[in-house]
Write a structure and sequence with these properties.
The structure is a homodimer of 210-residue chains.
Chain A (H helix, E strand, L loop, with lengths): L1 E4 L4 H13 L4 E4 L10 H6 L7 E3 L5 E3 L1 H11 L10 H27 L20 H22 L12 H16 L9 H11 L7
Parallel strand pairs in A: 1-2
Antiparallel strand pairs in A: 1-3, 3-4
Helix pairs in contact in A: 1-3, 1-6, 4-5, 4-6, 5-7
Chain lengths: 210, 210
């Protein structure tokens, strides 16, 4: 089993942290985004969307899309569960993770892809060209601000993002916050005290270095 | 178990078709989007994002997000599987469904939400206000056109969207095409012969009436 990834890619980091939390043995294969290796014929053959990460199984099946890779790894290695342990827990974790991804992670990504000069005709990741839309930069940052205020309300009454236990939703949230801090200068607001306390706790886990 | 839904909501239809395919006994509770019942206090208590559908379990747990509801129903009622039957099959179906959703379904939704006068300050579903961005209408329609050409390439060599068997990815694709046809006047292109043949086959299933 090999994970094609990039060290600087937040989506790759989401899978690396899960691998570290569960202590799995997965070979990491770097893809050099700087030279657009993700658009090479060799990489397109395993991921036609030309994005990292991709999990390549020993039988040749290639799995893309971060939450799908994470869920596959959980299914084949259920020890140290990160999606809960019952259908109801899996539903709550899955729902929460998807909302964090749509409202937080995707908003940061959208702000960057519509800003960076090098992505001028690639405002959406994938094989097709799309022009940048400057109005989206403003709107994406509003969405990140709302993501922080909604997260603060939620963490006031909950130890972790999807409930009492650390889960994949905490991984998505940690990566989103580091991504917003480093790439669009939107760190956790000073007033978001519950988010700050949660962040200290989660960033202290060894997996956060992955 | 109750599904809060709206007859005219494509996201609700995705769950209704799965229920019909699997022959499940789920009570349907209508939510009147015309009077913005989704923003009522009663509905917000079960879905703070104020969108349909929501699956309310008998123990009070509320599950939102279409693929999460679908996967929960599959887990508790595995007969007539719509996600495959092995971890590898579930990964391929999940990956394919997510791409159809992101590239097809979400593009149609984005075109509409940035167009319709009644959604002027609600360009993104949920509790927060976001202004419409006219440039997104153009870009969303380009994305729908690319969705059709990518789908045509895929269905030339595959009986169903995620492989040899009918799956939840076919449900998402059917609903996306009907949504594009009816809401933004983008039916299947004449040249997409494999998509047209697939559509005839899938639309003939009784579940498509759900």
């Amino acid at each position: 089993m090999k994970l094609y990834h990039s060290k600087g890619s937040p989506n790759s980091r989401r899978v690396r942290i899960l691998i570290a939390e569960k202590g799995l043995d997965v070979e990491l294969v770097p893809v050099d985004l700087g030279i657009r290796e993700q658009a090479s014929d060799a990489y397109k053959a395993i991921n036609p969307r030309q994005v990292v990460p991709t999990l390549l199984l020993d039988n040749g099946i290639a799995i893309g899309e971060v939450p799908v890779i994470q869920r596959y790894l959980e299914e084949v290695s259920p020890e140290k569960p990160l999606f809960g342990t019952t259908p109801e827990e899996r539903a709550v974790v899955g729902m929460t993770d998807r909302r964090i991804e749509a409202e937080g992670f995707a908003s940061v990504m959208e702000a960057i892809r519509n800003t960076v000069a090098g992505l001028k005709d690639r405002a959406i990741a994938g094989p097709h060209s799309y022009a940048q839309i400057p109005d989206l930069i403003v709107r994406s940052k509003q969405r990140v601000a709302n993501f922080y205020s909604d997260l603060e309300a939620s963490l006031k009454t909950s130890a972790y993002v999807a409930g009492a236990d650390f889960s994949v939703a905490d991984i998505t949230t940690l990566v989103t916050i580091d991504f917003a801090t480093n790439a669009i200068s939107m760190p956790i607001p000073e007033t978001a005290v519950a988010v700050r306390a949660w962040y200290e706790k989660v960033a202290a886990r060894p997996s956060s270095q992955a």
